[in-house]
C-alpha cells in the first residue's frame, strides 16, 4: 500500500510540475493581475495603470490592476508573496519594499526571499506640497511656520513604509520637529483631503501632484530632485529652499512570487521593456515629471541589486529615527 501511495504522490507531483511548466510555455493564457499596494488614484496606481495598459496590448491578455492598500504597502506585497508563482499575479511597488523590510519587524513575508524580479520601472521625484490656502509663501517660511505650530500642523501620508511617510520622516528629522501625521490607504485619498483643506501638508510624488500644482489647487514649496523639473519650473528644489541634501527619488519595480517559471518572467520582462518605450507611456510619464528606467535597469538583476542596496541604505536611517510600524 505504501509503495502505491508513494507512486500516486509522485505522479501527482509530476503532473503539477508539468502543468506549471506547460502553462509557462503558453504563457500568458489568461488575464494577469497586477497588484498595486496602495489605493486607486495615487501615484503608484497611476504608474501601474499606464504600464499595465501597454503590457496588455503586447501580451494579448488583460493586465488588470488590483488595488490592495494598507500598512504602507505591505498588505499588497504580502498578497503577492503568498500567491501562486504561475506568472498570473505580479506586484508593482516602489521604495517601500526596501523601507518596510526594516520598519516592519513582523512582516508576513521575507522581503529578500519571497519574490522573483522582473525589472525597474521609473524613479519619481517628490514634492513638498500644502493645501492651497496654507499661509507660508516659500519653503523657508513654511519650515518656520511648521516649527511654531508643530502641534497643529497635520501631515498626510500613505502609512508607515510609504514613500510619503519616508519623505515626511526625512522632512521632520531635517527640521528637527515631529509633526502630527494622518495615514491613508494611499495618497490618492490623501490628495482629496488636501484639496478639501482637511489636512495641511504632504510629501508626494510628482505623478500625483503635478497637475494639481499646475492647476493651482494645491501649493508647492519644493521638489526633491537635484534640479528643477521642466513640468514645474517655478518650484524650487528643496536645496534652494534651504533643506540641503533633501533629495528623494521613488524607484518602482515589478515583482512576481518566488518560484515563478523563468520563461514567464522573461515574457513579463520583455513586455515591461516594450511598455517603457511605448510613446504614450513615455509622454504621460514626462507630463507627470518622471521618465522610464533605462533599458539596462529594466532587468531582474538590476531590480534585485536595487532592492538589496536600498534595504542597506535605509536600515540605519530608520533605526536612527527609531520609528517602527510594530
Ligand atoms: C506612497 O508611498 O506614498 C504611495 O506612493 C502612495 C500611493 O501610491 O498612493
UniProtKB/TrEMBL annotation:
Signal peptide region: 1-24
Pfam families reported in the protein's UniProt record: TctC
Gene3D superfamilies membership: Bordetella uptake gene, domain 1 (3.40.190.150), Periplasmic binding protein-like II (3.40.190.10)
UniProt keyword terms in alphabetical order: Signal
Origin: domain of life: Bacteria
Stated family: Belongs to the UPF0065 (bug) family.
The protein's name: Tripartite tricarboxylate transporter substrate binding protein BugD
Organism: Peteryoungia ipomoeae
